[in-house]
Amino acid sequence: MYALLSVSDKTGIVPFAKGLCELGYEILSTGGTLKTLLENDVPATDVSDHTGSVELFDGRVKTLHPKIHGGILQRRNHAQDTTQAKTHQIPAIDVVCVNLYPFKSTIETTNDFETIIENIDIGGPSMIRAGAKNFQDVLVITDISDYDITLQTLREGQNTLAFRRKMMIKAFEHTAQYDCLIANYMNERFCEKLGEKVFITGEKVCQTRYGENPHQKGAMYEFGNFYRQCLKTLKGEASFNNFTDMNAAIKIATSFGNSPAVCIIKHGNPCGFAIKENVFESYASALQCDPVSAYGGVVAINGVVDEILATTINQTFIEVLIAADFTAEALEVFASKKRMKIFTASQDGKTLAFPKDSIDFKHIEGGFVYQESDQISDTEISQAKLVSHTPASKTQLHDLHIAYKIAALTKSNCVVYVKNSVLVAIGMGMTSRVDAAKSALNKAKEMGLDITGSVLASEAFFPFRDSIDMAANAGVSAIIEPGGSIRDDDVIASANEHNIALYFTGVRHFLH
């Protein structure tokens, strides 16, 4: 019995190979894998010795040979295949263990095209696909996490068709994802990311109990490894909707560097936000915006939750809480909250982490629309053009910065009111910007919040002066928006009439 081992990631390959040898397999191997095995006293035969053909073209050709692919692809219960294999002296290869050249890590560490090209695997995908195609007879392994279960399965004589089918599916997923990565890279490099075909691939992080509703199945996938490495579950199980809300909360909370920001999300929209001296003060201030909507919401805290903050949070039912870390005492405070779910997402244990993808897409029936991700730069805000007579104060500029980022990261049409680094009113997802403004002000009135002296941000231009007039009546002191309306002059005139500082950024941030 032959087992072919040729891996780029050599983690665990030595004990796996030794286990195969103990089971009576003869090991065939190549290049670096062969060297590793021999250095660790694992008997193995060079593929070149097995095929009688030397490696060619700096290793570009080494496994592309009938003795390799014939050994993998021959059908054991097919008389003609058996006869041809004997005639051409091609022994069967029953186990294929391959993982591929590190194309992903290569493009992450170099822009040298020659190096990138040489890290496109050819023989590896061919062997994997051959083994997967012939899974009726061949066991193909592509995931290092499957080494132990494979050895156990072989030792117990349970190398069943069902097990081989499972490994076959993983093998085709492995090569498909690899080819998608290469194609997307080439499109990004030569076609401005928008080639004739684009591929979206992900690896499952976890199954969710259901999708948006109980009658829908759901799961969470990721592009890289951020969630498997950084997201830790401390309590409960995240649902489909929890993931989408956490995404919105963390995106906003991490948009202000290391600031102790706190964002409260309900149904994908912010209903509270603040940046104060510490996360305790930020949470207390954020909750004031809309404590009714915050009930059962998702809270992202850009810092560590201690016992004092936990005790305050515990006074309101928060369904999902995510932070950089939690003290043991804080977790003890939440222990009795059966419905509460607690997570960390951090790389340093001090601040939240977020992957910030470079691409964005949205499903539409029959396909999807695909684009570069929207980015809100700090310079876009700091270099915004003052178009009114009255300039903003330092405090107002800071509040405008916060308000504008929240607006850009919230569903259009959106207006955001911020006062002293705290979100005091927000209207989002409305068909009219005026309606958004009215909704925000009505909510603030209901909550007993004083808007006087606040600043206002909109993610797109105000088409008429009515929104500025309304803001002035509410006591707004400064406004930031993209500008670009054919009635900008009217909007500016209104700001000047009311002595409001008005800034244009020149960049629209629709989020539909």
Please name the defining characteristics of this protein.
512 residues; alpha/beta; Rossmann fold; Cytidine Deaminase, domain 2; 3 domains; six-stranded mixed β-sheet; 21 helices; elongated
Sum this structure up briefly.
The chain is an alpha/beta fold and 512 residues long. It contains 21 helices and 21 strands. The protein has three domains: 2-190, Rossmann fold; 231-345, 3-Layer(aba) Sandwich (Cytidine Deaminase, domain 2), CATH 3.40.140; 379-504, Cytidine Deaminase, domain 2, CATH 3.40.140.20.
Given helix and strand content, the structural type is alpha/beta
Task: Trace the largest sheet across and list its strands.
Answer: 8-13-12-11-9-10
Helix content: 40-55%
User: Residue-averaged pLDDT, rounded?
Assistant: 95
Q: What's the CATH superfamily of the largest domain, by name?
A: Methylglyoxal synthase-like domain
Q: How many H/I helical runs? A: 21
Low-confidence stretches: none
CATH topology of the largest domain: Rossmann fold
Number of self-contained structural domains? 3
β-strand number: 21
From the N-terminal CA to the C-terminal CA, the straight-line distance is 58 Å
Broad CATH class of the largest domain: Alpha Beta
From the coordinates shown, what is the CATH architecture of the largest domain? 3-Layer(aba) Sandwich
Shape: elongated
Strand content: 15-25%
Largest sheet, described in full? Answer: 6 strands, mixed
Radius of gyration: 29 Å
